[in-house]
Model the fold of this input.
Amino acid sequence: MPIEQHRIQSLSALEFKARQVVEGFLAGLHKSPFHGFSVEFAEHRAYNQGESTRHMDWKLYARTDKLFVKRYEEETNLRCQLVVDASSSMYYPA
Done:
């Protein structure tokens, strides 16, 4: 049963939050608790010998004389389904 447009617009002020955090395999607009390499910087981590120098922070090395790697927030896609009970038993006068 399709929902009327004005009812959909009335839901725009609601904020939905996930009950649990899961790791995704695709990049997207939603932050993940897992660290990866994307656009948004998260923190520095000490460099371990043998790992890639691709994300080395050379400016920090120049200031501290210690090697650090930049870590970034990983982004994932969010897939969800919204079920709305619009039956008369759910009616509550405002």
Remarks:
- The beta strands are 30-46, 68-76.
- The first strand starts at residue 30 and ends at 46.
- The chain has two helices and two strands.
